[in-house]
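Pipeline run #58 for the internal structure catalog. This entry was flagged by the ingest filter as a single-chain record with no existing model, so it goes straight to prediction. Upstream metadata was stripped on purpose; only the residue string is passed forward. Reviewer on rotation: M.T. Logging verbosity set to normal.
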Amino acid sequence: MGRTEGELLMRFSAAAVAGVLAVVGGLGAFAPLLVQGASLDAAEQDLVARINAFRDARSLPALAVSDTLTAAAKWMSSDMGARNYFAHTSLDGRSPTQRMFDAGYPAFGTWTGEDLAAGYTTTADVLNGWINSPAHYAVLVNPHYHAIGIGRGYTAGSTYGWYWTADFGGVVDVVRAVPVARAATAAQAAPSFVATAQVALPPDSGYHASWTAQSPDPTLLAGEPATLVVALMNTGSRGWYRGVAYQEANLGTNDPRDEERPELAADWLSANRLASTTTDYVGPGEVGWFEFTVRAPSTAGDYRLGVRGVVDGSTWLEDDGIFFIIHVRAPAPTGSISFVR
């Protein structure tokens, strides 16, 4: 009898998986893009596909599966079941954003959000539960999200049985994480519930700036150098420290951002970083000066150079549309001179 029940259970599980795979195949183009080999079971892949189809119908970008977000989501579903609770703050006191960060995702520098569900046994019911809740719907249609991690877990004897977690992020990361594996067993009847959605806005980095002054556009002969300056006022709450990682304000190329300009670079930090501040520290309310040299290309013409402040590793400063036009003129012709007496 025990073996027969086991066989029946295996047949039921296989049929359920086949049904899930059929749905994924039917969704076709919305099957999840797995980044760095993120490990999802068939139902988790199906939920990602359904979410992407839902977003596509509203002209929103598809979500790529992130290893780190997947690890965070799987851990959360497993922990809720094992410790029998249902809340966005885990019992160790961590918020969704903190858990994503702890799994390796750059959560404190971008948008993050989390949807939870419990008691549902199918992906269709999970998604419908979120769609019918205004707060969860807002997470699903947030255009700032580009990455997702899905985790589900079943714990016998827990209040809801099945627990589902969807973690969302604003960037597609490439860091690998080891997902928390949790074997799924047959679902048992349990009440269904959806937790209040959690959305975290990117924290203010404290780095801001506004344009103050700059040199006039130079007119040069081919190969001739010119020293230019840009002045930016520190309008943020944090100081700029030259030579200190993640706190040093530099002048970068802009429009397009980070474009390399070797044809103009002379004494630059790199082909897309012109200079750091001339002083070691620029405090809030103070003006920082950036001095750099351009060298005129060998071909005559007008060369546009867009620039913008950036604290590398933290954030770009405000885009005030700063640019120079480097006017390069051809040398005057040196024809022969004739004399007649």
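catalog note: The longest helix spans residues 2-27.
catalog note: The helical segments are 2-27, 42-56, 67-83, 96-102, 123-131, 134-140.
status: ready for reviewer M.T.
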